[in-house]
């Protein structure tokens, strides 16, 4: 794989994370996000993104002028989904977290692709960074899936079922419950 391709993949993912961090930061300041679990989750996502952005910059393999071209390249890299995530910040906290879950999943896919490319090109430093970053994103996806039932239950005013909803949804992700072919 060429160095140009690695730079392009790296830059695309970097820009997606920067854009998503901007959205996360606006959500942290939203009047609609009052639940302490949601506030803590958004803070954790923001901190993880800060660390990952710094990690990308430390690697020194981003395309030149990255900061100036974020919006243009983001549109190419992520299409309409990123625009959707950034829209309507007047949404309920549950919808914000749903959109964050989607964005985190896109980022996880990006890290999977970049990790594979780094391994293929023999870039051990990038492979290690992407593996660590993917692990953190997977943790944040899991945490989002645990917080979301609490936020929905709170919004529909049935908070007493939040723990049960969380437990049930987490069971769905247990590999023992997957269909065997």
UniProtKB/TrEMBL annotation:
InterPro entries: Ferritin-like. It comes from the Bacteria. Gene3D superfamilies: 1.20.1260.10. This is DUF892 family protein.
């Amino acid at each position: 794989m060429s160095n140009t391709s690695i730079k392009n993949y790296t830059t695309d993912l970097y820009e997606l994370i920067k854009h998503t961090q901007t959205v996360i930061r606006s959500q942290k300041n939203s009047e609609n996000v009052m639940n302490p679990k949601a506030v803590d989750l958004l803070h954790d996502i923001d901190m993880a993104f800060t660390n990952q952005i710094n990690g990308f910059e430390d690697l020194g393999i981003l395309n030149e002028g990255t900061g100036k071209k974020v919006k243009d390249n983001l549109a190419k890299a992520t299409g309409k989904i990123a625009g959707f995530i950034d829209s309507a910040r007047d949404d309920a906290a549950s919808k914000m977290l749903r959109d964050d879950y989607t964005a985190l999943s896109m980022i996880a896919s990006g890290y999977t692709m970049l990790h594979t490319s780094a391994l293929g090109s023999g870039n051990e430093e990038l492979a290690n960074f992407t593996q660590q970053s993917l692990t953190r994103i997977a943790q944040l996806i899991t945490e989002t899936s645990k917080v979301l039932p609490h936020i929905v239950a709170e919004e529909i005013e049935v908070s007493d079922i939040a723990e049960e909803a969380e437990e049930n949804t987490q069971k769905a992700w247990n590999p023992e419950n997957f269909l065997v072919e």
